[in-house]
């Protein structure tokens, strides 16, 4: 039997307390990280509504819904392109009304261009001035100086006053517009976007049938310098209102790897809560969203928005409505009530989603569909699209996507303590 030298025994005894301390810290970090663990669900919480073409049911009851676009008069060509694309791929069959929003009176040119593109009902609404300006209590000169400074620093759109107005409007007052008060669901449409798959079922009906609250096509990382304190404000409101952390909320957090006595110091950095845990900045890209307006009209969302409004940081930072919506949805909505429209082919600027076509599911004999699309991209095993034609792209989604939040909950690079936790468990 080997004998341990006395000098080595003394050194081991000297090191033992330190080793125990290090082990205790490691265990504490693992316990902390475990609080953000999102278990893999036993079933798919969000399967596609359909995985092939459907014969459009033009006689079925419609939901109380509208397609909503914010645009400027000079964007009549871009707006017409979006409406034409949506009409060709969806609304020619379902005829949902359009509501167009502008902060200025509409030009005859814009109205004529739209009405020549669709047979659906169209409403052209002017946003009330109080919803498209600085809050009455805010120092306007100070806010404009901050906006200029953001522009000088290169914050994306941070130097554009109208962009700040737009983000504030879509974070709050948009659901109070008179033309929308009579509607339950809305589909946000932007100028100059394209739809490259046929949408042969009614997404509003399916949202209602499956009790979905929020639907999206793309999820992207928010720019770091646009909203450095937004997550802290939202998480503070969450704690003040004793709201439990849902799996969606946990999936949006990158837990701190520091021991408890140091985590508080990291709360001084951007995109962190008071405990030092960080938001991974993955958010639903709200230029496309199909949502239940009752969610935004609910007391919780309205109270959250009022809290954010009081900070003034829609102007003193550049808080985007996409980030606000995403954090609110992740905090207040159960995971199974959020829907990814994976079967929609959508392009906005250089970002795109391009599903492949379902084998044997293209309804080649359908006269209704053939009147719209008679050719499409090749069918691929596992495809879920309907008559998709995505410009011959070999990649199906933009590489910047941060999907699937329940399966990849923290970030593309998971912290080492998460891997350790998984190994220990």
From TrEMBL:
In the record, biological process GO terms are: cell wall mannoprotein biosynthetic process; protein N-linked glycosylation
Active site located where? Answer: 289
- State one molecular function term (GO): alpha-1,2-mannosyltransferase activity
InterPro entries with a match to the protein in the record: Glyco_trans_15, Nucleotide-diphossugar_trans
Ordered alphabetically, the record's keywords are:
Glycosyltransferase, Transferase
SUPFAM superfamilies per the UniProt record, alphabetical: Nucleotide-diphospho-sugar transferases (SSF53448)
Say if the entry is tagged with keyword Transferase.
Answer: yes
Q: Does the keyword Transferase apply?
A: yes
GO cellular component term of the entry, any: membrane
Homology family: Belongs to the glycosyltransferase 15 family.
This chain's protein is named Glycolipid 2-alpha-mannosyltransferase
């Amino acid at each position: 039997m080997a004998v341990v030298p006395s000098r080595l025994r003394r050194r081991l005894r000297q090191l033992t307390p330190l080793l125990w301390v290090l082990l205790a810290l490691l265990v504490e970090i693992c316990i902390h990280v475990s609080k953000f663990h999102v278990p893999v669900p036993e079933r798919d919480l969000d399967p596609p509504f359909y995985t092939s073409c459907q014969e459009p049911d033009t006689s079925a009851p419609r939901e109380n819904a509208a397609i909503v676009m914010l645009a400027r008069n000079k964007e009549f060509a871009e707006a017409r392109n979006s409406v034409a694309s949506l009409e060709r791929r969806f609304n020619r069959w379902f005829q949902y009304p359009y509501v167009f929003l502008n902060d200025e009176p509409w030009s005859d040119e814009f109205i004529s261009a739209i009405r020549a593109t669709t047979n659906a009902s169209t409403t052209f609404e002017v946003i009330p001035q109080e919803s498209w300006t600085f809050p009455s209590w805010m120092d306007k000169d100070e806010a404009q100086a901050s906006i200029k400074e953001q522009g000088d620093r290169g914050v994306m759109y941070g130097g554009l006053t109208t962009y700040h107005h737009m983000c504030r409007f879509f974070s709050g007052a948009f659901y109070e517009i008179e033309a929308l008060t009579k509607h339950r669901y809305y589909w946000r449409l932007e100028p100059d976007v394209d739809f490259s798959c046929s949408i042969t079922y009614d997404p509003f009906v399916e949202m209602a049938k499956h009790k979905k609250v929020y639907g999206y096509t793309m999820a992207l990382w928010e720019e770091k310098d646009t909203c450095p304190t937004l997550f802290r404000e939202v998480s503070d409101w969450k704690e003040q209102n004793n709201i439990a952390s849902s799996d969606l909320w946990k999936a949006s957090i990158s837990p701190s790897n520091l021991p408890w006595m140091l985590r508080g110091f990291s709360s001084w950095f951007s995109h962190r809560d008071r405990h030092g845990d960080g938001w991974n900045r993955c958010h639903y890209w709200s230029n496309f969203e199909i949502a239940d307006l009752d969610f935004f009209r609910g007391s919780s969302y309205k109270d959250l928005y009022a809290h954010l409004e009081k900070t003034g940081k829609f102007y003193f930072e550049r808080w985007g409505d996409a980030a606000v919506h995403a954090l609110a949805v992740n905090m207040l909505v159960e995971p199974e009530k959020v829907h990814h429209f994976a079967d929609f082919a959508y392009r906005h600027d250089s970002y795109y989603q391009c599903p492949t076509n379902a084998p044997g599911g293209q309804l080649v004999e359908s006269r209704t569909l053939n009147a719209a699309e008679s050719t499409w991209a090749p069918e691929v095993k596992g495809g879920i699209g309907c008559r998709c034609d995505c410009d011959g792209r070999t990649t199906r989604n933009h590489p910047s996507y941060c999907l699937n939040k329940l399966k990849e909950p923290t970030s593309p690079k998971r912290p080492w303590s998460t891997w350790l936790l998984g190994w220990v468990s």
